[in-house]
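Service request form, structural biology core

Requester: graduate student, group of Dr. S.
Request type: structure prediction, single chain
Budget code: on file
Notes: please return the result as structure tokens.

Sequence provided:
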Amino acid sequence: GCQSPQGEGSGALTWQVLTTCSALEERVSGLAEEYSLGFSFSVTYDFLATEDINRDKIQDVLFLYKNTKGSSYFNLSCADEGFSYPCTFVAAMSGANGSMLWERPAAQDGALVVCAIPQPGGSGASACIIVGRPGPFVAVDLSTGQTLWNRPSGFGSNVSILSPLLQVPDADADGAPDLLVLTQEEREVIGYVYSGSTGKRIGHGGCLGVDGTSSSLLHVTRAGAHYILLPCGRLCASPKAEAMLA
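Core staff response, request fulfilled:
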């Protein structure tokens, strides 16, 4: 069987991975044993990703959790990144044996994350980019969790950042994919493009002509055209979004 991470009544969070879970075996090849990992005083957020972080050819797991007592495995606290308790941690766990590869404070209260963003410069570094709710844009090295860059988002307190963050083609020609961030401002959805290598905003935001807070989807056609699909009473493609990505 397979158990998903969840917050329990006492605030305990437990991972359990079993070799009999065929869905996991498809994503984490070579897993040869059962293991579990526990976090005290924690609850999870709606984010889970797999990447081969330590390059052992086995997919590892990245996740977010709310931490109320400091790091369970490293000597880290929310205050190390300027947050108060409780705060949001991002963690990377080995898919081979369940050991903690790294973890770090990421945001005050929840965050959106997109991973495997290659960074320019020929170093081969790949980043997870974290947008706090509220908080800055932070890029962390996928292998170590160390900060690559940190930049204020510039969003006001009355702005809601919508899930998910969308990876788009390299708009500023710096060698790294960029990010499309959708926000809810009053009743309008506005899109902003940010550099995936520096966190700087590229150009101006554009109103997409829809309202609501439902999730969006980035669709790439066979010809390489990019569209944002937004629920607006029916499934529709936004021509304004297409223009932003052209």
